[in-house]
């Protein structure tokens, strides 16, 4: 296997993990680009949109679908929904061109707690150039874009942290008792013996009324002054989340 093919294979494994976390990560020679990486539809708006761009030299075909997004036992679940519609749902984009995809709200906005969805954008495999055939490569992209529909009232996440045990060891549990999602990044255990990184970069989301867990580093020591630090919803500064005792 060539060095390029081996590098692409490794990045493909990382990209699969990123999709499961809800991270948009391009693979080798990524022609399909999607922006923005998150959509929030205000209560007084009936629609918003994504821009799909083809940065390659060949036309590409993409499929766009929307799902209701929930969390159960710390796992993400996607289910069919009629709350939102996608237009267009199938599209072909010429080289160097871009296409607006509208996300249309069909249901009334929520009364108090935001609703969560995900838009899945898949590049549909097409004919492969001879160079790709020789290398055995046919990489396509999948983007998973969080979409939130906001209620008329202001919303915010409220996080409770707990240090507990499961069958494999000590874990951090974050429960969101607020009315909006919490995007968690740079999650750190700060104990009396120093700081231990739990998850660098984007660690995931905790939806309102739901909880998520992360394994603590084996050498993270509990103590009366230990706390959890994280960046919430893209804030520049970290927050301290004192665990419930």
Q: What are the main properties of this structure?
A:
245 residues, mainly beta, Immunoglobulin-like, 2 domains, 6-stranded mixed β-sheet, 2 helices, 17 strands, globular, disordered N terminus
Structural summary, described in words:
With 245 residues, the chain is mainly beta. It has two domains: 3-149, Immunoglobulin-like (Sandwich), CATH 2.60.40.10; 159-241, Immunoglobulin-like (Sandwich). 10% of the residues lie in helices and 49% in strands. It has helices at 3-21, 130-135; strands spanning 32-35, 39-41, 47-54, 60-72, 75-80, 84-87, 90-93, 98-105, 115-124, 142-149, 159-166, 169-176, 182-191, 194-206, 211-215, 227-232, 239-241. Strands 2, 4, 5, 7, 9 and 10 form a six-stranded mixed sheet that branches. Strands 1-3-8-6 form a four-stranded antiparallel sheet, with no helix packed on it. The radius of gyration is 20 Å and the shape is globular. The N and C termini lie far apart (53 Å). The relative contact order is 0.16. Residues 1-29 have low confidence and may be disordered.
